[in-house]
Specification:
There is one protein chain. This protein has 180 residues and is an all-alpha fold. It is built from ten helices and no strands. The longest helix is centred in the first third of the chain and has 19 residues. It is elongated.
Length: 180
Amino acid sequence: LLLDLERPDEARQAIETAKSVLSSQVESDEWKARFCAVEATFTFEEGGEQYLERATEAWEACLEKHHADSLVVTEAILFFDEQGQSDRAIPILRRASEETPETYGFRVALAQRLAAQGEREEAEALFREVIESHPNSQVQNLLIDFSSDAKQYAQALRVLTAWMELMQPPPTPVELLYAV
């Protein structure tokens, strides 16, 4: 809010105060990761393009310390995307998914990024890996879309049919997807 009110000095002071309290009183890695993301975001928003290098360094440091935190990963990727550095997303997502294989969201995001860059085989393998480990997730729908986008309708139908068998009776939206 202070930045929106164009009061950057007060905003910086609030960040420094929070940093002091955090370092002396908070043990939670989650809160440390959140603060790291706030500080990296603030660095850029405070100075815009003239602070781009400092903000980039802040995000890199944040990712080094909290490379598997969903907020840090998501916000860092958004930052790099906005700076025209979308190519940085795949290594960030690879590291996060390797560190936390139980968090399938990283693998799904990685598969989507790979598919967008034309790495369809690796993307499909990741989608299938997630489906195997989380059979009742919505990832089947992503694989159906992925297959349909590639005009692999028979494969999409196989995935959808297998998914429907898991959900007896399947919900109406899934039945509608089957019809179209």
